[in-house]
Structure formats: structure tokens, C-alpha cells
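Task: fold both queries, return C-alpha cells.
Query 1:
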Amino acid sequence: MRAAVFEAPGSIVVVDRPDPVLVDPGDAVVRVTATCVCGSDLWYYRGQSPRAHGQTIGHELVGVVEEVGADVRTLRPGTTVVAPFRWNDGDCPHCRWGAPVACLRGGIWGQPGADGAQGEAVRVPFADATLVAVPDGAATPALVPSLLALSDVMGTGHHAAVAAGVRPGSTVVVVGDGAVGLCAVLAAHRLGAERVVACSRRPDRQALARRFGASDVVAGRGDDAVAEVLDLTGGVGADHVLECVGTAESMRTALAAVRPYGGVGYVGLPHGVELPVGTLFGRGLTVGGGIAPARRYLPELLADVLAGTIEPGLVFDHRVGLEQIADGYRAMDGRQAVKSLCLLG
């Protein structure tokens, strides 16, 4: 099969790799029909996170089951599925606690020894627990982008809102206008926030944020963004701030923009971020988040996608084929695209 691999910073290549096969009786082999480039992929693409030469890449996928192991009970060949960005066994103490992302036997697509989602097929361990089936006939071409968004970015944006404590009638600020930040706007609106403030400088992303439910847009950064938020809220600050970038500046902005005893939900992959515990204590702030338990959220978000009440697939504004997936990386790296969609056959 063909699959993308990391060659070096700034270099993604598509190579021939062995076709995946069943190894354990709980496995499934899934033919990938849609995958994409994630903002977190850009960290190693830019050389800011380690990655081995030749390592498979990609962790978001929608596909069709081609083969199942003897112990698989809930899936059959021909079923369209969404795969969360990590697999899980569904039975370890962390899975039973509601944190499948921390599964003791789990893993992520593209880790050493595993298939990457940016390829023609993957072997899925613990298929029954990991994969979420889409009803027959529901995965229309128009719906596939939104189904794919559920594998990571929509669940991650939702996690930021849940971790921050967003509730009906609240005021929310979203720091970051990438795919996760835009999905966080959608998530906050979905959870009933009365006012959602999106931080963005780009007109196209501002427009999508408003389509997703943003009532206000702040174009400043850092101290300027905080000043604009305080002005919008009469000097109070936001009830909840969703940090969707992962830099020290974005976290400082989030902590300064939230009101005393408010909540911050952080889901940006952290690089150089340190939490000032004294500030958190003195202002009574609640900070939560981390890696999103996407598998836990998938069923409820899938129901809304199928009902047409949310359309997170609108974050995909650039399309490539698998052989051209390096172009998708370049477009996102240069901020010419919010998120690159890759459709396969």
C-alpha cells in the first residue's frame, strides 16, 4: 500500500509499505477513505518535536472495515467507521473511568510500529472498543469531512469547553483560530454559551468562527487581546477561556482574560508552557484539559453531525490526494489553510 512518512523536517514523502494484516483476534483492517493533516503534525514538520526518519504519520481517519478478527463482534466488512486518534481496549481501569485516551494498552496511529492514518489502510487493535460505526448509507461525500473532524479536532475543541466548565448562558473566549480553536467555538455554542468571543486576525477564519456561533471577534494578541476582552465584558473577563494553541503566549492570554474563579480549558499541545500556580491560587482559577478523550465524546457528537445540527467539517478548506499530501502540510505550515483534507479513492 501507499502511505506517507516523515523524512525530515519540512519533508513528507509517500512510499510503499506492507499492507496491514490481522495480528490479534480483536483486530480489524480498515481501508482509509479520508484522512487529514493535524495542527499537532506541524510541530514535527517544523522540527520542533522529535520524529524518526521514515516514521509513519497521521492520526485522523474515516474508513471502511475490510477484515475483522475472530473476536470482533460489533463490526463487519463494509461498515464505515470513524477512528479516534488513539486506540483503546475499552476495559482497562482508565477506559472504565472514562479516559480511553489513557488506556493502558492503547496507542496512537503513526507511533513506531503502527500504521499511520495518512495511508491507504491501517490495522486497528481492539476494534470493537476503538471504532465507531456510521449507520449504513449515512457517510455521504458531503458528510465525510464532518465525520473526519470527529476523530480529533471536534472532540478536542469540545474537551476544551467541557474542561473549562462551559454552561448555558456563559461568556466564553477562545484563544486560537486553527481547526481546534474553531471547533471550540462550535462546541461552546453547542453547550449553550450566550456569548462566544473568537480571537482571530484572519478574515476567513473570523467568518467561519461567526458561522460556528461566535458573537464577537477579537483581532489583537497578547495584552491587546486581553484588553479587548476586558472591554467587551465591562472589565470582568470571560467566565471560561479555551486555550487551543499550546504556546506560552496563548496560555498567558487565557489566564489574563478569564475572570476570577473562572475556568480555563487547555488543549493546545504545550511547547514552553509553565503554569503560574501563585496566580491560579490568588485568582481562584480552575484549569483543566489535556489530551481529549475523543472516543468518549464520539457517540454524542456523531449524533449531532448525523442530525445536521453541527458541521465541523467546514474547517477543511484545502483538499489533496494522498500522493500530494506534502502540499497539505505546506499549506497549513504557511497558514494558507486551516486544515488539509486528504481523500482516498
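Query 1 returned. Query 2:
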Amino acid sequence: MRRIFFPVLLIVSVVAFSGAFEVVDDSFLALKEFLDQPDSGAFLSLLERAEGLLIVPKYFKIGWVIGGQYGQGILLRRDPETGTWYGPLFIKIYGLSVGAQIGFQTISLIAVIMRNVDTFAQGNITLGGSLSVAAGPLGRRLGADYNLDASVYSYSIARGFYAGFSLEGAKIDFDRELTREYFNVFSVYPLEILTKPLKGRAEKIADFLNERLK
């Protein structure tokens, strides 16, 4: 039993003290790094049609047959008709995996949410279970015949080494404490947060994305 939980406990001990504003700033830097890649055009094409964006700037994975994953990030909702962004709702993503895996890796995880973005506000959802997930397409543009059949398309920028990486089975829940810290409130209503235009330091993310989507 200790072998099963040790990877997750080790990762949580590393990232559990990230503050809300640090997560927002790191999310902006991760997004900027990703969009500086020459083949991110397809990502922007997806984003034009998307209902939301999930950014986890530091997603830690560690494993030796039994693997653990943990990260904190933000969820932004987008109105495809007006281009208005809402949130941010702070989330945590975690999971266990068993199989051919060895090593330690830190990645920046970015996921485009095409539909059912409000599902994330309910908490305790599973990627690949309650929401279908697929690797995001790469390239300077999205092909006209590309079949958008998944609810979520994920991208990552990897650092370090890890074998057997997959988002299938990862669980996502909203992070009540970080959301309270950012909005300086005690009561947190996730669905309500996703109806409020972005405020504070997260606004720079919206400005940056809207500029790239022009």
C-alpha cells in the first residue's frame, strides 16, 4: 500500500504550497512558451471554436511501475460568439497509473475544451471517462477535414524524462482553497465563477489570447 501512495504524496509535498497568483503567472508563461512553437497554429484554430481552456503550468509525474501525477492550474471559460473569457476557476489534476513507466517528469499541460465546460465546475471528473480526451493536433493550421469528435484536446511541453505518459484516467477537481485566495472570498461557487469575466492578473492571459486569435 505504501508503494502505491508514495509517488502521489511525494509530488503533492512539492507543489502543495503554490499560491493562487503564482499559478496564474506560471500559467501565462506556460501558454506563451507553447504559442511560441512554430506548429501551434492548429491549437489556435481549435481555440476559436472552443468553450474553455485548461492550463496546468507544472504537472508532475513520478513512477516506477506505480506512477503518480499531480498539478494545479486554472480553467477559463470562453464564449465562442463574443470571444469573452470568464473565470478563472482553480483546479487540481491527479491520478495513479500502473504499467511500463519509469522516471520523473514535469510538463506544462494545456487542454482545449470544445464542449461541456461546465462539467469541470462539478468537480471529480475523469478524463477519458466522463469526458473524451485526445492528443491535440499540431501544425501551422487545422485541416478542413479534421474530425472534432473529442470533448478535450490536450497538449504538453515536457521537461525531464518519462515513458508511458497519458492523460487517460487523470482526475480533475476544483481547488477551493486557491479559488478563495484569488477572489478573496470564503464561499466558492464554481459555476458562478465561470460566468464572471476574467479579473485581476488572469486578464493578461485573455488579452494575450485575443491578440493571437485576431
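Both queries returned. Flag for query 2: Residues 2-213 form one domain.
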